[in-house]
Amino acid sequence: MYKGKKVIVVMPAYNAAATLEKTYKEIPLDIVDEVVLCDDASKDSTVQKAKEIGINHIIQHEKNKGYGGNQKSLYNKALELNGDIVIMLHPDYQYTPKLIPAMVNIIGDELFPVVLGSRILGVGALKGGMPLYKYIANRFLTMTQNLLIGYKLSEYHTGYRAFSKEVLRTIAFNKNSNDFVFDNQMLSQIVYAGFDIAEVTCPTKYFEEASSINFTRSSKYGLGVLQVSVTHFLQKLGILNLDSYIKRSK
User: Fold this and answer.
1) 227, 222, 231, 230: which is closest to 140 by C-alpha?
2) Local structure of 35: helix, strand or coil
3) pLDDT tens digits for range 175-234
4) DSSP state of 98
5) What is the rounded distance in angstroms from the CA atom of residue 225 to the CA atom of residue 233?
6) Closest C-alpha to 5, from 117, 232, 162
7) Residue 228: in which H helix or E strand, if any?
8) Fewer beta carbons within 10 Å, N or C terminal of the chain?
């Protein structure tokens, strides 16, 4: 608990057996009430490892639903468990769990309802091993998104995110893609719904066991991101009416 608010960490897992325990051991369980892992039909022993280290809430997809589909299961479960603050943490140890207290503090003290762990703030992205082509693509896409969406973030592509219960109950995340572009659709929904977003500097870590998508998938993701941003822009101009895909119906 943090000031009476229930804190839940959700972990979207796919073939994460090698790094799951190391990640889990750094989660500050003194303030985190529940940890939920969703295994997206892994081919390794991710589920067995999760049970061994004591994760109580484990969701298993019989068929791979994709990164977005994994998150949908996690956020729905977090709401079912009445989480007030929900942090998505990848179990591949690419993002440090040591930032969780800072993210919880920002939301718990009602400074911002959304917090992103940014790899771009500061100068550590390339030093931490981010491939040059990914860094350049990140900067280009982020610049374009800031212009089209009308918000200012250092990056839209981090997988380290924290949300208040109100945000997850407001936006229609279940209508988003099951693929990687889910993350950007969610941020578009959040901005359009009028929620403010904070960023904290997050160390960048790339290594062999860390999950990553190849160049082809990255290219598809980039095109999807641009489509989301253009759609958001047209929605703002009133050319499109997608309110039912942004906010949940009351």
Assistant:
1) 222
2) strand
3) 999 999 999 999 999 999 999 999 999 987 775 555 556 667 778 888 999 999 999 999
4) G
5) 12
6) 162
7) helix 215-237
8) C
